[in-house]
From TrEMBL:
Its EC number is 3.1.22.1. This is Deoxyribonuclease-2-beta. It holds the Pfam family DNase_II. It comes from Phyllostomus discolor. Keywords: Endonuclease, Glycoprotein, Hydrolase, Lysosome, Nuclease, Signal. The gene is DNASE2B. One of its GO terms (biological process) is apoptotic DNA fragmentation. One of its GO terms (cellular component) is lysosome. Residues 1-23 form the signal peptide. GO terms for molecular function: deoxyribonuclease II activity. It catalyses: Endonucleolytic cleavage to nucleoside 3'-phosphates and 3'-phosphooligonucleotide end-products. The keyword Signal applies. Belongs to the DNase II family.
Length: 355
């Protein structure tokens, strides 16, 4: 092969590889670039000037940054991190290729019905035989079905909301498959091509709403993102009749946890110091300077290790600290990533001690 032909072949190969990389499913930032993971905190709708009264601003952190930054886009635009990431779903749906997706929410879009038969879980998975992403969030009635394209529900504006997107290689989906079984999500839109049915035992059943005969009370899985970030996922079924934070997560992680969950009147559990590792309710979240909001304005579900604790964990997930939620299935994904920990620890304004 002559030098010119070799250069041409290498150039074509390079272009082909670039095309493959660009087409790879991944979490995306506001510029549309692939990122290993991102987390967002949608701020509640407030009456001060800083929040601009829309209830659509959010804080953003991803694998390429070190701390929270204010979003450049609003949550309801296709140029937001969620809009960019979900764009891959709509393109895959339109092309009808061998891409699988699963959308679940206990509050289904455009529905007033709310069923406690399924887990208190909200999320979306999109993947192919190479890789995909798992988006876990707290937003009711989100996202719209693929036929409708991207949109953000009015019901998600008033309160604070949270989410985390993680990019996973396909070899992680067998473990995710088992976690979803335990969480028992309310699936409202899905497509699982036959090519995945042999390797993923439970997701096709969940998509078909076929209930398994047996389900473990709880299950813990170790996961690794596409770029090697380690995560733990705790999944509990409705047969595990206890507060997931106190009875399992804090004791397993060996850390005192500060928890932020929706604090509705007469539907919250008090801080708990009955076991070796304690769980405290966060009462106010600091945004910046003198700007803060109350847990009563927050629909997010997350926890972070107390500062003085050696094991520094951050977890984002599905369940509130409530007597009723102890009866529901759901889960949390946890990481010891130092930037995520510092970002969430910096949000804690004050928390409730044990009585």
């Amino acid at each position: 092969m002559t030098a010119s032909l070799l250069r041409t072949a290498l150039a074509l190969l390079s272009l082909g590889l670039c095309g493959v990389l660009e087409a790879t499913i991944s979490c995306r930032n506001e510029e549309g670039d692939a990122v290993d993971w991102f987390t967002f905190y949608k701020l509640p709708k407030r009456q001060d000037q800083e929040s601009r009264k829309t209830g659509l601003e959010y804080l953003y952190l991803d694998s390429t940054t070190r701390s929270w930054r204010r979003s450049k886009q609003l949550m309801n635009t296709t140029k937001s991190a969620l809009g960019r990431t979900l764009e891959q779903l709509y393109k895959a749906y339109a092309s009808k290729n061998n891409t699988a997706y699963l959308m679940y929410n206990d509050g289904v879009p455009k529905s007033v019905n709310y069923s406690r038969k399924y887990g208190h879980t909200k999320g979306l998975l999109l993947w192919n035989k190479v890789q995909g992403f798992w988006l876990i969030h707290s937003i009711p009635q989100f996202p719209p079905i693929p036929e409708e394209g991207y949109g953000y529900p009015p019901s998600g504006r008033r309160n604070g909301q949270i989410g985390i997107c993680i990019t996973f290689k396909y070899n992680q989906y067998e473990a995710i498959d088992s976690q979803l079984l335990v969480c028992n999500p309310n699936i409202y839109s899905c497509s699982i091509p036959a090519t995945f049915h042999q390797e993923l035992a439970h997701i096709p059943q969940l998509c078909a709403r076929s209930s398994p005969s047996e389900m473990p009370g709880r299950h813990l899985a170790s996961l690794q993102s596409a770029q090697g970030q380690n995560f733990l996922h705790f999944a509990k079924s409705d047969s595990f009749l206890d507060d997931i934070f106190v009875a399992w997560m804090a004791q397993h992680l060996k850390t005192h946890l500060l928890t932020e969950t929706w604090q509705r009147k007469r539907q919250q559990l008090p801080s708990n110091c009955s076991l070796p590792y304690h769980v405290y309710n966060i009462k106010a979240i600091k945004i910046s300077g003198h700007s803060y909001f109350s847990s009563h304005q927050d629909h997010a579900k997350w926890c972070v290790s107390q500062k003085r604790t050696k094991n520094r964990w951050t977890c984002i997930g599905d369940l509130n600290r409530s007597p009723y939620q102890a009866l529901r299935s759901g889960g949390f994904i946890c990481t010891q990533n130092q930037h995520i920990y510092q970002a969430f620890q910096g949000l804690v304004l004050y928390y409730e001690n044990c009585n």
